[in-house]
Amino acid sequence: MKSLLGSVVFLMSLFLVRQVMVGAGVLTSGTTLLFLVGLVGLPLGAIVLVEGAFEHEFRAMRERIERLESELASRDRSDSSR
Predict the structure, then answer these.
(1) CA–CA gap between residue 35 and residue 29 (Å, rounded)
(2) Structure confidence at residue 61 (pLDDT)
(3) For residues 8-14, average pLDDT
(4) Is 25 left (phi over 0), alpha (psi -120 to 50) or beta?
(5) Residue 2 per-residue DSSP state
(6) How many CB atoms are located within 10 Å of the residue 65 CB?
(7) Average pLDDT for 8-21
(8) Where are the alpha helices (DSSP H) in 1-82?
(9) CA–CA separation, 21 vs 16, rounded Å?
């Protein structure tokens, strides 16, 4: 539900920005599509980049945790065999 609300707010703000820019004469109706594609594409590209970085970091953390767990398990086995 939060993502739907976020999408609606994002689209409303996008429309508001477009209206202000058209009203100011910066944007014509012909360049509106290019503007909207750029305005939507930039944040989406940034989200994809950040998501990829976090995914890489989480994978590295998961591997470290698994390695530490296996080391701890091997120490426990060696301690119990003494």
Answers:
(1) 10
(2) 92
(3) 73
(4) left
(5) H
(6) 10
(7) 73
(8) 2-23, 32-81
(9) 9
Q: Are 27 and 35 in contact (CB under 8 A)?
A: yes
Distance CA 38, CA 34 (A): 6
The pTM of this model reads 0.42
Residues 6+ apart with CB under 8 A from 40: 14
Whether 26 contacts 39, CB under 8 Å:
no
- Whole-number Å distance between alpha carbons of 62 and 33: 42
Taken as a whole, the chain contains a residue count of 82
> What does the longest C-alpha to C-alpha distance in the chain come to?
82
- Helices 2-23 and 32-81 pack at an angle, to 10 degrees, of 150
Q: Are 28 and 22 in contact (CB under 8 A)?
A: yes
CB 33 within 8 A of CB 14: no
Residues 6+ apart with CB under 8 A from 17: 39
